[in-house]
Amino acid sequence: MADGHVRVAIVGSGFAGVGCAIRLKQEGIHDFVVFERADDVGGTWRDNSYPGCTCDVPSLLYSYSFAPEPEWRHAFSRQPEIWAYLQRCVRRFGIARHLRLGVEVKDAAWNSGQRRWEVETTAGRWTADVLVSAVGPLSEPAVPALAGTENFQGTAFHSARWRHDHDLSGRRVAVVGTGASAVQFIPEIQPLVERLSVFQRTPPWVLPRRDRRITAPERVLYRRAPATQKAARAGIYWGRELLVVGLRHPRLQGWQQGLALHHLARNVPDPELRAALTPDYVIGCKRILLSSTYLPALARDNVEVVTDGIARVDEDAIVTRGGSRHPVDTIIFGTGFHVTDPPVADRVRGRDGRTLGETWAGSPSAYLGTTVAGFPNLFLLLGPSTGLGHTSVLFMVEAQIEHVISVLRHLRRSGAEAVEPAAESQRAYVAEVDRKMAGTVWAAGRCRSWYQDPTGRVSALWPGFTWPYRRRLRHLDPAAYVPV
To answer: Do the beta carbons of residue 367 and residue 429 sit within 8 Å?
Structure first.
């Protein structure tokens, strides 16, 4: 006997999960729950509370189109602002009563006889007609398996699980990784620590962050004349869309690369350090990072950049492959997330009993990045090939949510209990995306990035402009789906 049955079960309460819940209510669907393993909503913006955590997308683009925020204080919003915005949306749209906080989904399996999902949670078993996975690609921290880590006598943690109870003042700190999170927290902790050792495998391309405070008169204008904020948002959106041209045609990336090299030269006078921080791949192949403080921080006297690979971790030091020993009492991993191998894929089982992970076999794929053959009434928000390298993923999230709503309408009109994408429709779509990806900076940039899955395929990103994706998802093609 199930503890409850709902029309729709949503897993995750970040932007995708909360946005889906809001649109279900607006569509007149109130029979749903949102499972959240943490004790509050927020997803990535709840978990990543490290010092300096800031969005790389301009604030005016980083909100739901149906819930613009006129009170942003910075051109690029800080983590507390974004988390508070999501909490306000929950209250504003009456989502709180649908939340099941502190409840983790352990397993979800499609029951072909009952035509419903059986969902095992830490608070009991539920059934649902429709399952929406909104856990997001940046939800599970990835920590490298370094030899000897278990012997380390100091404190070690991932940036997405920041130890705010651990005072870094006067400590010898190692930062492993130089990705988007590390470039934000390194400048914040550098003045506090005695010694900072930054272990860099591949240098990132870094552009200055053109941040500024949004003035009180601007906020008043946005509040009293929402059309002005809408126009400003549209201008930022189309400006960001133009960046795709260079990403699709790497030979046109020279201007951005020149800006990054100029930024590096201005902030790192030492030629040896500057050489170590100069990438050897085309800008955009890996995520382009925005910071006006990261490079100056690396040039400080108490910072060393270590480019030799890590051999092992001792009780009180990190030892490199070349044999150099770096005494540390704290290790912070800025090593990203399980993007193309999400643990949730091993918890969801389809019609044939296989998990998503087994079906994908190391290379995630989905029809429209949202639905998967063999998994009826399952929707993946921010699924395969929906990430972006140039603008706000919320644009993609909203397009996907509208597709979910369209399929639910189709089920109601057709009388079908469950549908899934036809295998051929999915194969054709994935092949089309892969063709468009070929030749882009992400696929031909001579670098290894988290955009690529273990097979080498770029399965995390959408390979072009976002407006064609939204236009495509706006109109449901019923022939692409088959009843089961």
So the answer is: yes
Distance CA 146, CA 124 (A): 37
How far apart, in whole angstroms, are the C-alpha atoms of residue 231 and residue 142? 39
Query: What digits encode the pLDDT tens for the residues 198-256?
Result: 999 999 999 999 999 999 999 999 999 999 999 999 999 999 999 999 999 999 999 99
Instruction: Name residue 277's amino acid.
Output: L
What pLDDT digit, counting tens, does each position of 420-461 carry?
A: 999 999 999 999 999 999 999 999 867 889 999 999 999 999
- What are φ and ψ of residue 311, in 5° steps? -90, -45
Q: Say if residues 310 and 317 touch (Cβ distance below 8 Å).
A: no
| Tokens standing for residue 462 | 């959408």
Distance CA 53, CA 56 (A): 10
Whole-number Å distance between alpha carbons of 392 and 77: 13
**pLDDT for residue 1:** 35
Q: How far apart are CA 404 and CA 370, in angstroms?
A: 8
pLDDT above 80 for 59: yes
Cβ-based neighbours of 334, under 8 Å, separated by 6 or more: 158, 159, 175, 176, 177, 178, 179, 181, 182, 185
Please tell me the total number of residues recorded for the chain in this structure.
Answer: 484
Q: Catalogue all structural domains in the chain, each as residue range(s) with its CATH number.
A: 4-140+338-483 (3.50.50.60), 149-204+286-333 (3.50.50.60)
Identify the burial level of 301 via C-beta atoms within 10 angstroms of its C-beta, where 0-12 means exposed, 13-18 middle and 19 or more buried: exposed
Sign of CA dihedral 481, 468, 67, 243: positive
Q: In 50-127, where does DSSP find H-type helix?
A: 79-92
At 422, which amino acid appears? A
Helix (H), strand (E) at residue 442: helix 441-444
CA distance 278 to 289: 13
Place of tokens 């140039």: 390
Tokens of 329: 């009492």
* Closest to 120 in 3D by CA, of 16, 14, 18, 35: 35
State the Rg of the chain over Cα: 23
Residue 359 tokens, joined: 């079906």
DSSP strands (E only) in 95-177: 99-101, 105-111, 116-121, 124-133, 155-158, 172-176
